[in-house]
Amino acid sequence: MDKVVFFFGGIEPIIRILVVGTLAYISLVILLRVSGKRTLSRMNAFDFVITVALGSTFGRLITAKTVSLAESITAFFLLIFLQYLVSWLTVRSSRFKQIVTASPSLLYFRGQFLDKTMKQQRVTQPELLAIVRQNRIGSLEDVEAIVMESAGTFAVIKKSNTQDIRNHSSLANVLPDSSKSYLQ
């Protein structure tokens, strides 16, 4: 059994943390730069899991004497490779994308709060009103739609003066097919 150290366990563990922590940090930065911008973009559920796992691996490397730098770099590489693989498959397969990422949800459309969707997404009217205010919009009359995006962020779409927005609407992938007639 290891002895418990409360205040100071010698200089060797401190030197190990400094050396291994620095090398792990440099390795992680290099791996993240090589993997591309997607690894560091706004997070969906899978991106969040990868971020937490990378942080956990890094923390364990620094604090656990029994974990080697080579093991941690291998874990970093594996996690970043899995994130790259999932994002690569997501771009190439709509079926895979549906499994991995949530679809955006329409919460408000042309003067109506969509209560069923709001309940599903656990969002209240006061929260949506706050989001409208954060976008510096003073009245819901100026709002076409509010969408909860895949990453959990909110998009407020202002009303447009364009008469025919059917073919150019940013809401095309949010409205159900039966509702696309609203875009006329």
Automatic annotation (TrEMBL):
GO terms for cellular component: plasma membrane. InterPro entries: DUF421, UPF0702_alpha/beta_dom_sf, YetF_N. Pfam families: DUF421, YetF_N. It comes from the Bacteria. It is a multi-pass membrane protein. The chain crosses the membrane at residues 14-32, 44-63, 69-91. Residues 92-163 form the YetF C-terminal domain. Residues 22-89 form the YetF-like N-terminal transmembrane domain. PANTHER family: UPF0702 TRANSMEMBRANE PROTEIN YCAP. Belongs to the UPF0702 family. This is DUF421 domain-containing protein. It comes from Gloeothece citriformis (strain PCC 7424).
